[in-house]
Amino acid sequence: MNLLYEEGGDIKIATVQSGSGSGDAESWQATSLSGKKIKLKAKEVWLRFDKPQAQAVMDEATALSKDIDLQLLWDCAPEEEFGLVDVSHEYFGAQATIPQQVSLGIALQGAPVFFRRKGRGRFQRAPLEQLQAGLAALERKQKELEQQSAWQQELVAGAFPEALKSSAQQLLFSPDKNTNAYKALMAACTETGESPAQLMIRCGAIDSPLAYHQGMFLKAHFPNGATHSQSVGVDQAAYTAAIAELPLADVKAFSIDDAGTTEIDDALSVTDLEGGGHRIGIHIAAPGLAIAKDDPLDQVARARMSTVYFPGDKITMLPDSVIEQFSLDEGAPRPALSIYVDIDDEGLVNRDSLQMRAEMVPMAANLRLEEIEHLVSEESLQDEDANYSYRQELAILWKAAKHLHAARQEKRVANGLRAEQLGLIDPNALARDFHFQIQDVNGVQRVEIVPRQRGSILDTIVAEWMIFCNSASGQLLADHGLPGLFRTQKGWGPLRTRMQTTPGPHEGLGLDFYAWCTSPLRRYSDLVNQWQLIALAKHGVTAKMVAPFPPRDAALMGIAADFESSYQTYGEYQDRLEKYWCLRWATQDGESKNVQVRHLKEGMSRLELVPLHLPIPELASHPRMTRAEVVLTDVDLLQLSVAVRVLEIEAKLEAPEPSADEDGSTA
After folding, report:
1. Whole-prediction pTM value?
2. Residues 6 or more apart from 188 whose CB is under 8 A from it?
3. Which site from 183, 232, 261, 591 is most exposed, i.e. has the minimal number of CB atoms within 10 Å?
4. Is the alpha carbon torsion for 64, 65, 69, 75 positive or negative?
């Protein structure tokens, strides 16, 4: 005997091996068509039959079920609950065969729109209103599936569907996985073996791998877009009120930056003192005079935490209108927070002369490194006939910078670190700074990557005086018991360098106190510290009573953690795009490129000409700075990967070990 039953929503047939009991208590040991041993009870069985054979019945019933007219079956079915045999006589007639009855069971089980299940082998037809609604839904679903299939074929063919173009960015970067568009995209990717980004680039929905990398970053960190709202800013009346009572400084200040700098945060001045010596001014742009804690501009700056820099562009922390108001551009007095310190004729700093005040600083010039750096040397600084601006001031700043540097090195050595070399480093060492210049040539982007060695006189002047300013600011905050965002470095390990709200030493720089304050237009930490310093400049010993952040302020601790996280994330994004442009540089003149690399450690090497780090296992056993010629092939700009084949390994080049400290510019 054969038994018809349902399992997991499917109609199945099993052949009885043995049975027991009678009536409703009857049960059987049976074997399914798949060979599985099962036990069935009487209440689970829909139909019993001896012939035809089970497999033949199932094969014929499956074929017949495909031709059953569900609408006619619904019309034939009674209003009340019915069984399989009952409706088979209505649909096929009194002589309905076993395969026909089984085919109806398959059809009924698979038509929930037409029939409700009321128990094992029992059904009731759906009310007319529900049937009509269900059929309409099925029709919509069928149309959606047809549309999904059409989109899939377009994508496979390399054409992005017109209807999806407006949502292409969302489809790739933040998709709703329940939509037909996403299902069509993933089905097309499965068919072609591509990733969604690869397929969308091939279809022209995404311009390039660069657009993909940028889009992923913006989705994660600027979901509402990177453009500032035009409604947020400092209006002219508020700006005028903020600077109305500021005194005019009796200096002629100048800044030193590269040509691409638009957020000019800092400037220097040198003033002769009666009786000899000079007063050095470090002047920091002062948006903190007009931006108040928790106001709309503060909320914008706090959400971003920093300007994001990457080759070819940047995302500014503050709106352009605010930068234009406070950037220390030449030609007019600008609001600044100034720190002054006196030096003697030998360039030695008198720290007891330290002063700080908010004022309007006349900006006489914005010096650009590209125009003047090659002119500045030890010899030219002493040559009164040297033909470049601010020679005398630069000579004074340089003399004092050397003393500042020497004093820091003494503390580095006391901290167990090696003293850093002043001036240009070994010419055989790898360059650490690079300028990425991206140009459009006949509609195609090309990148030029120009190395720039650190350690020039101008580099040292700017670095040492900005380090001094950050150190002096940290000391002022510490001396007056004001919390701030202090940059500390102590000991070793992953948390060696960190941001904290209480003072601490920076062993790598050789400083007792260090608080970033020289870049308030582009770093939120510096803006926070500037608020505290402004309170100190205006109120002196009572500053703790009026400063925006009192001691042990929980909000300030949260800002420190958020800043660290954002600053690291932005740095990783800059590194990612620099790697992208390095790989573009490697392929823009052909499929492969022969280059020179230097081994660093553990098989990791770096190209000499550009800051591209690559794993090269063949060099793992060689000494540091071993030079090799390699060929780069199979560049993948989406995965940011490249194949490397070693052509020749050359002799080791001696070069000093890189400093373990953080970026020495620190300005």
Report:
1. 0.79
2. 151, 152, 155, 156, 199
3. 591
4. positive
